[in-house]
Design a protein that fits this description.
heterotetramer; A: 265 residues; alpha/beta; TIM Barrel; 9-stranded parallel beta sheet; B: alpha/beta; Rossmann fold; 2 domains; 44% helix; binds pyridoxal-5'-phosphate
């Protein structure tokens, strides 16, 4: 299903997929537990050869997040994580590490910044795209056009609750890759990968020729392994943060390594 | 109600001027579509409104009366003061109007469970009541701080069979309870309906809640015409999310001669950081949160402020998009009332008229009583008494420093 | 309402069979005569009832609805259960019917002050409300023990401007508050009216309070005919002094097919010494106290017993003379409900129907729910829900042993 | 205004009035503070040559009494004062002391006992009449007839609130003497004797030729003195009990003496 004209993020993903069966995207909330800790996390991701990284800009009303990330958003805000903090950090990460870096956040940040300024800052920091958790495609037309003008990929979401028609509509607007939700709900809970995930990803494939990332509830190396042959990218978020919180930086490093190991050819 | 408001431009469904829309995680897209379809279907079914009114007439006490306040009128010496008595509703506030309406929709959609946020606890009690009556499972999300302020309502919700979940995120108040609901719903939507308690949230909630609450304004308009022979000069309502205001204003939107006044929570003062005035005083600015675009109390980078009000039901960051639009249009004027003014107005209204408005509703009285003397006796003004004060006894007794009440609590606690 | 009841035999004015009369200190003779005259005059004035109804319609929410309880009916599988919703009245109980009526009379008599006894606090709140509304001074007598049980109501009475006097005599409950009122009145009657809260006391109170409360029965009868197309098979009401019962029964007295059932406070059991069942169980006997002849709980030498009920409003030694007469005649059947049964019924009704009857009203539900299964689906029964449970939160939470409520009280008390 | 045919209590009163300008009636609640204390009180009354004595039978709902007597009623009941206690005590008093002894109480006691039995017991104890605080004349016809058959005088009340017509009606039914209320209200408070009492007693005289006793709020020897020439009997109740409670038996004795002194010719 390779598109010959792949460009931008999609090109990166396809290049990666040429070398191994599945890629790994990991995530962190900028400012939590601290910028230093975030840097250590990025170093661990880099060491493990993680393929893509989402940096979440904290927001006070993170409606798509579960308890771990809600707390992370809240604490990062309390610690004073501003737009400037965020983009400075992102720019440092882009210049230091190989992996493409994506913005993740909520629409109010984009709206307050203004779409043009938002895309300009992303591009200036060298970021490659963005995931806006509460921005539906029908509200995103202007932003997505601006993004493309800045060579940024807006990453859209497909969910198991979507109708086939809706999936197709999302497919038409997507670029880079598609972020597929492993299950209903918010971030942080286990997903039973045996149940319907293959069906769902099959429905997504029918709706788009872009690579498919599967996120929400991918928690263990075994989960990642199980996605081989199903998805193109495995996204692990909460499980990484939990490891950091419960067992510290070394365990975090090992955990990310273990995840990445399952993506090897 | 002005149907113009609801004639959405192509591609702008759910927008009122620049406000409204549906900004939710994609997972909820089909659920909202289903709800819109069910609501549209119900709205087009003349039997549905009749069924709704019938429920409100036989289970609550609609039409609620309009009461003339002769004593306050005489005291203030200006406009004649009338009060729409939503406090007489079953469960003690206008919330039941919306809740029973959504309950009937839930039945049409065949769902088995409802969830709801609650601030003052009124909407939680109303939803738990509806769930008990319609045989639905029920979970109520309530900020931890609000649970502390409104224990009596929590107790009744539990008696009604609801599961009351304390929300410990964020500011632990209404907005965080809404987030918690949206998260629950993102997982449970197959069998669960989210009974949003006010005219906020994603389309179709602002429209739908206004639709059900418009029963207040429809009744009130006819009552004022019947009682006074004319339309009121002004209509006052407190504005948390804005449902009671939208409900009563809906009856008068097309009456250009009627000035509509929304009163927000001035807290410790609109000049302090401790209030919840989004529109009055111009402290709020446009933003997108909790599923809708409107005016929010937020900082320059879009992070929501902590709000503050003696009235838990007004202690909220956002305001219904329809109201934000009507404000932008100049159709609704917004004012703020401080906590201190509210307690004073409450005392006055109780003492002079034997009416016991909820702390929320007392906000509307503050502005109405301030302005009445500047109007003439030929004018009538109408205040929406959205709820009753019983639930506020802990707060009011504390605000008034009632020593015997405190002693009573100590004795009860010692048992 | 059966006018026969009020066709007094010569020299027997104020008597219903062997019960009734006016046994008051001579000092009150002229005051009662004045009141009788004012009441007779008002009763003969067709404009008066219209004015009364108008006040009840615009200040409270009359007509209160009749609610069908489909869930309970299905659960119990017998008679269809209907509920008359006096809980929706302003101030939360039927008491306001009587109080506003007497308030209008006070205005006719030109008096400036009212006094009232209160047990549950409902009648006190209602009277204080009426006084605030009509601009009258107000003193409420309340047994010290009842003040402890019903602090929230005391708080609101004080906010309404009433002077609440703790009665420390006797058993420190309702009956002692009545004595205190009679004593105050014996001194203050020139400018003061005693707003007796139930169908007890000297003539004309039983008749007058029944007259005002009969609005319940008049409405309910018409509503049942309209809703069900027939009269109910049975009507249930709790009986403290008997005003809500007399009010609803009044609508059906002439309907021989309608069985009337009064439910008294069984307390810890009618076989114990701790109850307030005067008629059910035959524990009461004829006597004269507090101004009237009726059936009282007393010992062989005429000293009144201590009564006991979880419901302060039923915790009373005597019963209205009209009801005692209707009992003697076999027209009204009397039953008792124990505290334990009452708490159970309350839970069931809240949980199944989202209705929140006061502990007093829950007594009527106990018997209705017990008997419903033995009737057929062709029968409808009607329960008078005389008030709402909000005021009972301290008692109910205690009865249910709610730990979180206790913790909440401790925290509040510690502030 | 002497009636030639005076009999019963009226004869006693008139005989007394032949010797001094005003008589003194005092009162106690049987069983409070104790029967022994009651006996000491009676001895004090006897020593002071009090002219008439009311013995109150305690009742649980004493609506015509103020706080002192309410408490006395309550405590006497708590101490177990029964009908038998009462009548035994009354019979002892009658046989030991000179003064006529009257029953005072509430109608429920009479009603529960039955009118015939009530009168028979009074007569058997040698008592001379009764005052029932909450029995209006229109309810009293049977009881009063029975009383007269037992040579007992029912003492009726006249009050400042009564219309002239009502006073006349009461006058028609009264015998022995009439108990006139010095003011509105219940027992125990001060009465301002300057205000209207003379007028009121004048109205009572128009309504009856029986001797007039004035009670309620007569608290001091000066009050008694002030009634000379106005009333035929001064009734002192609460003030005596208060003296006993506050200052003990000796003070009580002195107080009753002082009251009685003001009735001397
Ligand atoms: C009595 C009362 N009034 C007003 C409000 C505010 O809500 P809204 O602005 O949606 O009417 C509440 C919310 O809980 C309430 O309980
Ligand atoms: C709710 C309620 N129901 C019933 C009663 C009992 O009074 P009644 O028997 O006069 O209706 C009371 C008295 O306070 C009450 O508050």
């Amino acid at each position: 299903m390779t598109r010959v004209d792949a460009a931008g993020l999609e090109r990166d993903v396809r290049d990666g997929l040429a070398k191994k069966p599945i890629l790994l995207m990991t995530h962190l909330v900028v400012g939590y537990p601290s910028l230093d800790a975030n840097w250590t996390m990025l170093e661990a991701m880099d060491a493990a050869r993680v393929d893509l990284v989402e940096l979440q800009l904290p927001f006070s009303e993170p409606i798509a997040d579960g308890p771990w990330f809600v707390k992370a958003n809240q604490e990062a805000i309390r610690a004073g994580t501003s737009w400037t903090t965020y983009f400075d950090f992102a720019a440092r990460a882009v210049s230091r590490f190989r992996f493409p870096v994506l913005f993740m956040g909520y629409y109010n940040s984009v709206f307050r910044m203004g779409g043009e300024r938002f895309c300009a800052r992303l591009a200036a920091a060298g970021m490659r795209g963005f995931i806006v958790a509460d921005l539906p495609p029908e509200e995103a037309a202007d932003l997505n056009a601006t993004a493309r003008a800045h060579a940024l990929d807006p990453i859209l979401l497909m969910t198991p609750a979507n109708s086939t028609e809706r999936l197709r509509e999302i497919g038409r607007q997507a670029s880079g890759f598609v972020y597929c939700l492993g299950r209903k709900g918010v971030t942080g809970k286990q997903t039973d990968l045996s149940q319907g995930v293959a069906d769902f990803l099959g429905r997504c494939r029918m709706a788009t020729s872009l690579p498919l990332a599967l996120g929400f509830g991918i928690r263990t190396p075994a989960d990642v392994s199980a996605l081989r042959g199903l998805a193109d990218i495995a996204i692990v978020g909460t499980a990484c943060l939990e490891t950091w919180e419960a067992r510290g930086p070394d365990a975090y490093r090992e955990f990310v390594q273990a995840l990445a190991r399952e993506t090897a050819a | 109600m002005s149907t113009e408001l609801f004639q959405f431009a192509p591609g702008r469904e759910g927008y009122y001027g620049e406000f409204g829309g549906a900004f939710v995680p994609e997972i909820l897209h089909e659920t909202l579509a289903e709800l819109r379809a069910a609501f549209d279907d119900a709205r087009d079914d003349p039997a549905f409104w009749r069924e709704y009114v019938d429920v409100m007439v036989t289970y609550s006490c609609r039409p609620t009366p309009v009461t003339y306040c002769e004593n306050l009128t005489r005291l203030l010496g200006g406009a004649r003061i009338y009060v729409k008595r939503e406090d007489l509703n079953h469960t003690g506030a206008h919330k039941v109007n919306n809740v029973m309406g959504q309950g009937l929709l839930v039945r049409r959609m065949g769902k088995r469970r409802v969830i709801a946020e609650t601030g003052a606890g009124q909407h939680g009690v109303a939803t738990a009541t509806m769930a008990a009556r319609l045989g639905l499972a029920c979970t109520i999300y309530m900020g931890e701080d609000d649970i502390a302020r409104q224990r009596p309502n929590v107790f009744w919700m539990e008696q009604l069979g609801a599961d009351v979940v304390a929300v410990t995120d964020g500011t632990r108040t209404l907005k965080d309870a809404i987030n918690a609901c949206l998260r629950d719903w993102a997982e449970s939507m197959a069998d669960t309906h989210y009974v949003l308690g006010t005219v906020c949230g994603p389309h179709p909630f602002p429209r739908m809640v206004t639709y059900f609450q418009s029963i207040i304004g429809q009744e009130a308009r006819a009552q004022m015409l019947r009682i006074t022979g004319a339309l009121p000069r002004r209509v006052y309502a407190c504005v948390g999310g804005g449902s009671n205001a939208s409900g009563i204003f809906a009856g008068f939107l097309d009456d250009a001669s009627v000035e509509l006044v929304g009163v927000e929570a001035g807290g410790k003062g609109v000049d302090t950081e401790q209030h919840a005035a989004r529109l009055a005083g111009g402290r709020g600015c446009p933003g997108v949160a909790q599923g809708y675009k409107s005016v929010f109390l937020q900082n320059r980078e879009g992070l929501m402020h902590d709000t503050c009000s003696v009235a838990a039901g007004l202690d909220y960051i956002g305001v219904g998009p329809i109201l934000a639009h009507l404000h932008a249009q100049g159709r609704v004027r917004f004012e703020a009332a401080t906590d201190a003014e509210v307690v004073e107005a409450l005392r006055l209204v109780i003492r002079r008229e034997g009416l016991m408005p909820a702390l929320e509703s007392a906000h509307a009285f503050v502005t109405a009583l301030k302005e009445a003397p500047h109007l003439s006796g030929a004018d009538a003004i109408l205040v929406n008494q959205s709820g009753r004060a019983d639930k506020d006894i802990f707060t009011v007794a504390e605000a008034l420093g009632d020593e015997r009440w405190k002693r009573f609590l100590r004795e009860k606690a010692a048992r």
